[in-house]
Amino acid sequence: MIPSDDAIRTIVAHTARLREGWGDVLAEADLVEPTGEYFPDPFALDPESVDRLMRRMMTYAPLGTDLQVALAFVEPDASGEAKAGGGCGGGACGTGGEKGAATILGGGAVETEEGYAVPLATTDVGDPTVLTTSLARSMGRLVLHECDEAVDARDEAALAELTAIACGFGVLLLAGACVYKKGCGGMKMHQATVLSVDEVAFATALFLRMNEEKPGRARRHLEVTQREAFDEALAWVDAQPKLVAGLRERPESLTDGVFVLEEKKGLLSRLFDRKKADEDLEALPVSKRPAVVRSEDERRRLAETRALVEEALQD
């Protein structure tokens, strides 16, 4: 299901603001995949491993290597409220402190006198998907802090997640947006993100198209629910080429969230639009054509498709 119109405009506007101010950095963002290539460090259920995981993720975000960041483990009580827990020892982690312990979990990172603290619920540490989702949100909030972005506390967690997606953590957040856990009444869905699975999928699809990444890099890591949301979002994004081009080339024009969406076209309309674009390209002098054109194999397959469509119309 595609997010609401308001949600789409919020996602696009925030993405545009990030691209406008930090486009040179974010244009180089890589899609972080949950594989040994991206996470080669050994892991155990101990504070040191969690800290090592966090610092590995920091290397994939546009954050300085000298940034002072400490982990703060927060233990929820029976009512679901969070209470500050102990640090990981050895100076690697700090404590969250009683002030704001229930609310700092949402945003993902808070400023301290020495730098920043990243709060983690102790109940999340034992679940790899929820843990990496929480840390990904923290990466987004750290980036917002470092960019001096003013963030309303009510929108903090959502904007942190959108920023994390813009930094390449979309697959990790998608995994956490829909987690099935066994409970006393059977399997129940748990959402470890503030954004819905459809909103995370939409923002991730935008990231892939803006950064010209292959969708298969994301799709192969997704469960059924996430994959369906992602495929629908990608199809919607592909039907909005002007919007994607605007985010890539003129993000300042989209920061207010005011833009006109293109009407969804059917298969034949898209094919004929593609045919016209090719004919316009062929009409240009060779010296004025774009440097990158279709390969011979692509042109052959396109010609075959045109022939099939024309034959069908004639019949």
Walk me through what this model shows.
By secondary structure, the protein is of the alpha/beta class. The chain has two domains: 250 residues, no CATH class; 48 residues, no CATH class. Helices cover 50% and strands 10% of the residues. The strands form two sheets. Strands 1, 2, 3, 4 and 5 form a five-stranded mixed sheet that branches. The protein has a two-stranded antiparallel ribbon with strand order 6-7. α1 packs across α6. The longest helix has 22 residues. It is globular, with a radius of gyration of 22 Å. The relative contact order is 0.12. About 8% of the residues have low confidence.
What is the radius of gyration computed over CA atoms, rounded to a whole number of angstroms? 22 Å
Largest sheet: 5 strands, mixed
Helix content: 40-55%
Q: Give me the count of strands.
A: 7
**Structural class of the secondary elements?**
alpha/beta
